[in-house]
Design a protein that fits this description.
This protein is mainly alpha-helical. The protein has one domain (5-64). It has one helix at residues 5-47. It is rod-shaped. The chain starts with a helix and ends in a 21-residue tail after the last helix. It comes from Streptomyces echinatus. Keywords: Coiled coil.
Length: 68
């Protein structure tokens, strides 16, 4: 079975659409991977005591005091 010229054009157009979608999804995946890495780094910093989340004293000098 041979494709007609119109079918070939339609399929090539569809391939282009799918390639663009793959490119968009790959960029979104990279963005999500970066966000996940940032989240892991933040969590590790909090657990290590490098970042404190003392919201009761937010904006006071106590909020900048490192944990013992």
């Amino acid at each position: 079975m041979t494709a007609t010229a119109a079918e070939v054009v339609r399929l090539r157009h569809r391939v282009g659409e799918l390639e663009a979608e793959i490119k968009r999804l790959a960029a979104k995946n990279r963005e999500l991977e970066q966000a996940a890495e940032t989240s892991r780094n933040f969590k590790a910093s909090v657990e290590a005591g490098h970042i404190t989340l003392d919201l009761d004293n937010w904006g006071t000098s106590e909020s900048h005091t490192p944990r013992p």
